[in-house]
Write a structure and sequence with these properties.
By secondary structure, the protein is α/β, with parallel strands linked by helices. Helix content is 42%, strand content 14%. The protein has one domain: Spore Coat Polysaccharide Biosynthesis Protein SpsA, Chain A (Alpha-Beta Complex). It contains twelve helices and eight strands. The strands form two sheets. It has a six-stranded mixed beta sheet, with helices on both faces. It has a two-stranded antiparallel sheet with strand order 4-8. Helix 2 packs parallel to helix 12. It is globular and about 45 Å long. GO terms for molecular function: alpha-1,6-mannosyltransferase activity. Belongs to the glycosyltransferase 34 family. One of its GO terms (cellular component) is mannan polymerase complex.
Length: 315
């Protein structure tokens, strides 16, 4: 059966107008939604970044005024040294600090939480503690308990840390860890850019005496040195080998570090392991006595302690 089509009302059919699609509208809606989410994320990132920057802005704007000029830090280990010997060390540090308007910080093994790391890591935490307790100091000088100040007339800020003096003293383009490290000290480093001063002995870098300029870089350096990953490596010489590691593998540290002649801040009483002390040198250290017994350092240092006391009495 066939059905007739309804008659047209006109002989000219209306033009074809396609039905409006909903797709463009959906796309516009989604685009607006994505744009709003993106703007919200950017705003969140901006707020977080600005907040972080504001948290760090205060330390960056604080310039140490040099009061005190130097904090002399020493870790006292009663398991390695006799009580009488450690009292002599304290006397030596206090006399030197009082002469030049410095401050002292004496730390003991156990004063800080090391999270299971060897006690020798107290060196790093004590230096960091000095920056916290004396935020206006110019320098932190860590001097191991195995050493004594022998020339009280010398100030470390003049004897070592003056930029022009460092330009003359620092050893450039030489292996960081002797004798054949492929990583060498920077050849173009200027004294004004130096933040850390170290020495070497015949075995490598020495952490028994080092000077650190107060500032944000110093805090970065100490935090890096004390990082859990390096303490977990169980280096044979703990913090000393960790120091050698970060100096060689972190250009940010190497680019601010100067190595100077050992006798400037780290002369040894004997020349077996390093440069031997000469009259007039700033300090003398006894790097091997603590490994013998608790009385060995007291016996070995006796003549030097007497000479040091005479020097202070006449200065």
């Amino acid at each position: 059966m066939h059905f007739a089509l309804p008659p047209r009302k006109t002989s000219q059919p209306p033009p074809y107008i396609p039905r409006a699609s909903r797709l463009p509208g959906l796309r516009r809606t989604r685009f607006k939604l994505i744009a709003l989410v993106g703007l919200a994320l950017l705003a969140l990132i901006y707020v977080i970044t600005r907040s972080n920057n504001s948290q760090h802005a205060a330390p960056n704007t604080h310039a140490p005024r040099g009061n005190p000029p130097v904090v002399l830090v020493t870790v006292l280990d009663a398991a390695k040294y006799s009580k009488a010997y450690l009292e002599t060390v304290r006397e030596n540090r206090i006399n030197y600090a009082e002469k030049h308007g410095y401050q002292t910080l004496f730390a003991k093994i156990g004063d800080y939480s090391l999270n299971g790391s060897p006690g020798s890591w107290t060196t790093v935490v004590a230096a960091r503690d000095a920056l916290t307790k004396y935020p206006d100091c110019r320098y932190v000088w860590y001097l191991d308990a195995s050493g004594f100040v022998m020339n009280p007339a010398l100030k470390v800020e003049e004897h070592v840390m003056q930029p022009a003096r460092l330009d003359e003293l620092m050893k450039k383009d030489m292996p960081v860890v002797p004798p054949d490290s492929i990583i060498k000290t920077f050849s173009h480093l200027k004294g004004q850019d130096v933040e850390l001063v170290l020495t070497q002995d015949k075995e490598g870098l020495s952490a028994g005496s080092f000077i650190l300029r107060n500032g944000e870089w110093a805090r970065f350096f100490l935090e890096t040195w004390f990082a859990p990953i390096y303490r977990s490596y169980n280096f044979q010489k703990a913090e000393v080998h960790a120091l050698e590691h970060i100096v060689q593998w972190h250009p940010t540290i190497l680019s601010r570090m100067a190595i100077v002649d050992q006798r400037l801040i780290n002369a040894y009483n004997k020349g077996v392991r390093g440069e031997e002390y000469k009259d007039g040198d700033l300090i003398v250290r006894f790097p091997d006595c603590a490994a013998a017994d608790a009385q060995a350092c007291e016996t070995e240092s006796q003549s030097f302690v007497q000479a040091s006391r005479r020097a202070f009495a006449s200065s």
